[in-house]
């Protein structure tokens, strides 16, 4: 079984796997429209995490993990708690296209998607409002800022050819609110 991750699964899968591939799925856009009151937020201050929205012209980059044998049951049990029970996500199969040039056929992969029907769904907001909500939210897995920055770093370093305007606009809004979070190499050399 292959499992596609497009949020925190890209850097912290939390389950054993046999192999992993960076690549993308078509027909979806990644959006910070899902609320999180456990991992990256609380009941009083829900965090914002990503989900996928159907978008026929778009593609979403992430990581597909191959699980085999005993890994299958263990990983699905873990993800059903992490994503479905705690996160309000449903499962779906999608075609995953590996980044590797020699990949011939897409791989069928399981993906977890939070729909607007789940109780934690927050829906659209401006990038500034999403960034402001992320700044004040923290949960048992850590601060919501870490979630945003790790996802942006993953995209920047592993998928430099990919465009994710929504993600990078939120990161930019966050840095305009908290400019002390970012240091360029030049500014570090000056100090």
Summarize the structure.
This is Gamma-glutamylcyclotransferase. The chain has 191 residues and is of the alpha+beta class.
Verbal overview:
The chain is α+β, with helices and mostly antiparallel strands and 191 residues long. It has a single domain, classed as Gamma-glutamyl cyclotransferase-like (Hypothetical upf0131 protein ytfp, Roll), CATH 3.10.490. It has a five-stranded mixed barrel. A hairpin with a 2-residue loop joins strand 6 and strand 7. The longest helix is centred in the middle third of the chain and has 16 residues. It is globular. The C terminus is likely disordered. GO terms for molecular function: gamma-glutamylcyclotransferase activity; glutathione specific gamma-glutamylcyclotransferase activity; transferase activity.
Query: What is the CATH homologous superfamily assignment?
Result: Gamma-glutamyl cyclotransferase-like
Distance between the termini: 50 Å
Which percent band covers the strand fraction? Answer: 25-35%
The CATH topology assignment is: Hypothetical upf0131 protein ytfp
Rg, please? Answer: 17 Å
Which runs of at least 5 residues are low in confidence (pLDDT < 50)?
Answer: 183-191
As laid out across the biggest beta sheet, the strand order is 1-3-2-4-5
Write down how many β-strands occur, each being a DSSP E stretch of 2 or more residues.
7
CATH class assignment: Alpha Beta
Q: What is the correct CATH architecture?
A: Roll
Helix tally?
Answer: 5
Please identify the oligomeric state. Answer: single chain
Q: What is the count of structural domains?
A: 1
Main sheet overview? 5 strands, mixed, barrel
Categorize the overall geometry.
globular
Mean pLDDT reading? 91
Family: Belongs to the gamma-glutamylcyclotransferase family. ChaC subfamily.
GO biological process, one term: nervous system development
Keywords: Apoptosis, Cytoplasm, Golgi apparatus, Lyase, Neurogenesis, Notch signaling pathway, Transferase, Unfolded protein response
Subcellular location: Cytoplasm, Cytosol; Golgi apparatus, trans-Golgi network
């Amino acid at each position: 079984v292959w499992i596609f991750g497009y949020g925190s699964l890209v850097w912290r899968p939390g389950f054993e796997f046999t192999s992993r591939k960076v690549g993308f799925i078509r027909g979806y856009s990644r959006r910070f429209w899902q609320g999180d009151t456990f991992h990256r937020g609380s009941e009083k201050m829900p965090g914002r995490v990503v989900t996928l929205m159907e978008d026929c012209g778009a593609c979403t980059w992430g990581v597909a993990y191959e699980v085999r044998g005993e890994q299958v049951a263990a990983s699905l049990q873990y993800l059903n708690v992490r994503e479905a029970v705690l996160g309000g996500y449903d499962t779906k199969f999608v075609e995953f296209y590996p980044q590797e040039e020699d990949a011939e056929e897409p791989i069928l992969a399981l993906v977890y998607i939070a729909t607007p029907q789940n109780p934690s769904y927050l829906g659209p907001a401006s990038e500034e409002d999403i960034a402001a909500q992320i700044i004040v939210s923290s949960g048992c897995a850590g601060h919501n800022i870490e979630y945003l920055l790790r996802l942006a770093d993953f995209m920047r370093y592993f998928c430099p050819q990919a465009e994710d305007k929504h993600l990078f606009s939120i990161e930019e809004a966050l840095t305009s609110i908290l400019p002390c979070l970012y240091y360029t190499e030049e500014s570090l050399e000056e100090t």
